[in-house]
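User: I'm writing a tutorial on reading structure tokens. Could you give me a worked example: one chain, its sequence, then its tokens, then a sentence or two explaining what the tokens reveal?
Assistant: Sure. Here is the example chain.
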Amino acid sequence: RSAAWHRLPRLSQFRPRSLASSSCPDSPVFRPRLLSGIQPTGVPHLGNYLGAVSHWVRLTRQDGADRPWSPPSLFCVVDLHALTACPEPAKLRQLTLETAASLIACGLLDSPGVRLFCQSQVAGHTELQWLLSAICPISKLQHLPNWREKPYNNAAIFTYPLLQTADILLYRATHVPVGEDQLMHVELSRELAARFNTRYNCSMFPLPEPLLPCGAAAVAARVRSLRDPTKKMSKSDPTAASRIGLADSDDEIWTKLRSAVTDSTPGVSYDPEQRPGLANLIDLLAALTDCPPAEVLVRHGPVENKLALKRLLADSLLERLRPIRRRFAELLAPPDGPAEVARLLRQGREAAEAEAAATIAEVRRLTGLPPL
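And here are its predicted structure tokens:
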């Protein structure tokens, strides 16, 4: 593990995941830096919110010794990654606006020292990607599954993990909140950070630690489809009733919850194996109320039947989402709303550029390239 991690308190909602790597001798203690990114897919669904966004907010709001991050904590809308799917330009612009507005509405920027920006507006991402490609064996990328699983046939899909590594190392991030499916990409960033440090006999990059959800956050990270609890909640599902969007109206939310798949067994009990549909609803209620799933029915009981559970869940969900939905609508209302989003993204870009410029200047010096 990086030396920086040993000097940090353990975070209650996230757990570190140790990954095998070599470290640079005499490694300095890097300033703790939090970084994560999100694809511009528009308004997040409930699974995105509970599994990632709400816990980014929680991490940035921790006080005193429980919030050890050195400012700025950085979050980016990774619009360059989105180009692998060849979206229509107007669609990409709209989705980027909606994604940024959603994060702001969720309170991500409410804490001081937190910045949000668009990946494509900081040139250092692609420059560092190219520099890292010179030390990355092709076999490393061939072993990653991302380029085999995607339907798109372009080189960007193959080099996608290199750009992810550049996203992290450009800001010398020490901690990256991710899900299980992104662990292999954080591992690549650790390996390439160690390889660069060894190749140039330096301690340029920390070895980033992935932060995996635990406790209530782990429950939230496994939100399932409302129509098929064997699948994750996803925007790719053609059935709109399978997911709840943060911008859904009260009526839409209740309609989707009321029709959510459960089972024919009488009563309400938590049994993910035998009653997955019902367990999914209980998991949602647990995540919203920060209560272990096994205890949530006792805390909110007696819950007499499935309809009562769905009503209880709807009440908790609407209480959480109404202020977010209101702020989101304000941020999309022209002209002031989009102008405010642009202002905050510009502020974030300026902070990110300052960090990125220092990294690129040092990397260019170490690799023998002339200064800009």
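What the tokens reveal: The chain has two domains: 3-214+333-367, 220-332. The first helix runs from residue 3 to 6.
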